[in-house]
Amino acid sequence: MFRVNENYLKLPGSYLFSTIGKKVNAYAAAHPEETVIRLGIGDVTQPLPPAVIAALHRAVDEMGNAATFHGYAPDLGYEFLRKAIAENDFQARGCKIDVDEIFVSDGAKSDSANIQEIFAADSRIAVCDPVYPVYVDSNVMAGRTGIYDAATETWSDVIYMPCTAENGFVPELPKERPDMIYLCFPNNPTGETLTKAQLQEWVDYANREGCVIIFDAAYEAYISQEDIPHSIYECEGARTCAIELRSFSKNAGFTGLRLAYTVVPKDLKDENGVSLNALWARRHGTKYNGAPYIVQRAGEAVYTPEGQAQIREMVGRYMKNASYILNGLKEAGYEVYGGVNSPYVWLKTPDQMTSWEFFDYLLEKAHVVGTPGSGFGPSGEHYFRLTAFGTYENTVQAVDRIKAL
Ligand code: MLT
């Protein structure tokens, strides 16, 4: 009889956002009279920018014409998009990133889950705590995380780096040496971020200790303050120690369209001099047939002057929501973080409630859905996340309901 990959059986329960979805759907079905406002999963609500829609229409028309039809996309991405990315997201910021270091994909979630495949099976990982659950889950699936302790919700082989109010939600350098370090800034879930000097310390550490940093910059479009790095390649030496993940989901509203990319510099090599760029290209070649032509044309449109203006406006709308949540909760006496360089607001639960107790309380009393902090890791206990990706009307109503509790 066949057997399944037992690593999958080690995963606790269901994926965080699936658990929340099930709970909320059950509540909504039992209480059809209530209007539930969902500020849990970080999914966008604004429609796609007009420049993107126009590019999609043009590309669809090309696909219906024998002279301009496109079959399989190049597995690493079309040159027109890779070039626009390299020029706008990196070279314009003074980061030396070339077109052949950009790997286009259909999502940063899958990139962040898949990237671990190119590292040795016994690699040790370090993650911020709280953490986007995909980083740990994907390493569990690869059998890399040792034994699960249900009491603390931690894995024996994972180095958890607590990010708390005490350290300003910036992790300290690990005492034991990891092989792979996952960093996400602006952070999901805390919404806090680090300065360029703080990120430089991580780059220096990784180069000194021979570690690789997997830097998730999915929320970089939300940075509003000076001195916050938009890319890890703004730091000196990052080309020899860092991979960067980017997404079109949060900056341009592509959650339902799917487009992202990963940067793997050619200078990034393992202890035997093996190039990670070549390995990741090899993996794409075998496992991936490229993001759709029409979607890559839509991505290219994001970099046009109109596209840039339209996505800035979209980000501005979500940040208006973030300010409303931040200020409203402060007025109501909550301890709140994030929401300045990020679409996430991280709040301390009142009266020592656990994260899940507060989740149930908010759902039942205010009919508002958020994300329990403990779902992101042990240091997330007694915290709660609200997203600014709702509509303005829903955001105002949700905050007003919370204030009225
Ligand atoms: C979140 O809510 O943390 C994100 O939306 C999840 C994701 O981007 O996959």
Tell me about this structure:
The protein has helices at 6-9, 16-30, 50-63, 79-90, 108-114, 133-141, 196-209, 249-252, 276-287, 293-302, 305-331, 355-365, 392-403, and strands at residues 37-38, 102-105, 125-129, 148-149, 154-155, 158-162, 180-184, 212-216, 242-247, 260-263, 336-338, 344-348, 368-369, 371-372, 383-387. The chain is α/β, with parallel strands linked by helices and 405 residues long. It has a 7-stranded mixed sheet, with helices on both faces. The protein has a 4-stranded antiparallel sheet with strand order 11-12-15-14. A two-stranded parallel ribbon has the order 1-13. Helix 3 runs antiparallel to helix 10. The longest helix is centred in the C-terminal third of the chain and has 27 residues, at 305-331. Bound molecules: D-malate. D-malate binds at residues 41-43, 109, 132, 188.
